[in-house]
């Protein structure tokens, strides 16, 4: 499977960040895959943001839940992250990841995309 993030690299404060992950080599509806957004701010560790399951059920980090929405487009095999009311603290490299807990296999990562929040 291959995952590719896309979206603007620069977002202004208070706007909504929107990123799309395009998946090839596997369907986002296949049991029991979980499609996840993770970010890494500069100089900090990885932060789980949220997940959309093969079934379409979503899970969000409690600290970001009020600002985060994850959706999917099954016809194009994509899933999307929206993060509202961004601040410079949301500057990070954003990754989309496929997790398959049923098999125990290693997660599959996209290459990541840098998003900077600045006026």
Keywords for this structure?
mainly beta; 119 residues; seven-stranded mixed beta sheet
Description:
This protein is an all-beta fold and 119 residues long. Helices cover 0% and strands 50% of the residues. The chain is built from no helices and eleven strands. The chain has strands at 2-6, 10-11, 17-24, 34-40, 47-53, 58-60, 68-73, 78-83, 92-99, 108-109, 113-117. Strands 2, 4, 5, 6, 9, 10 and 11 form a seven-stranded mixed beta sheet that branches. A four-stranded antiparallel beta sheet has the order 1-3-8-7, with no helix packed on it. Strand 4 (34-40) and strand 5 form a beta hairpin.
Secondary structure layout plus pairing:
Blueprint: E1 2-6, E2 10-11, E3 17-24, E4 34-40, E5 47-53, E6 58-60, E7 68-73, E8 78-83, E9 92-99, E10 108-109, E11 113-117
Parallel strand pairs: 2-11
Antiparallel strand pairs: 1-3, 3-8, 4-5, 4-9, 5-6, 7-8, 9-10, 9-11
Provide the β-strand percentage band.
Answer: over 45%
Q: How many beta-strand segments?
A: 11
Averaging pLDDT over every residue, what do you get? 97
How many helices? The count is 0
Order of helices and strands: EEEEEEEEEEE
Which of globular, elongated, flat, extended, rod-shaped describes the shape?
globular
* Beginning-to-end CA distance, first to last residue: 36 Å
Structural class: mainly beta
Percentage of helical residues?
under 10%
**What does the radius of gyration come to?**
14 Å
* Unreliable residue stretches: none
Main sheet summary: 7 strands, mixed
Please give a quick description of this structure.
This protein has 119 residues and is mainly beta.
């Amino acid at each position: 499977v291959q995952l590719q993030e896309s979206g603007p690299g620069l977002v202004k404060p208070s706007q909504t960040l929107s990123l799309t992950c395009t998946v090839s080599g596997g369907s986002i509806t296949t049991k029991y895959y979980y499609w996840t957004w993770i970010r890494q701010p500069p100089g900090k560790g990885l932060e789980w943001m949220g997940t959309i399951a093969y079934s379409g059920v979503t899970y969000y980090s409690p600290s970001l839940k009020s600002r985060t929405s994850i959706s999917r487009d099954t016809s194009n095999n994509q899933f999307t992250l929206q993060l509202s009311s961004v601040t410079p603290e949301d500057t990070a490299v954003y990754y989309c990841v496929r997790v398959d807990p049923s098999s125990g296999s290693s997660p599959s990562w996209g290459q990541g995309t840098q998003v900077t929040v600045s006026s």
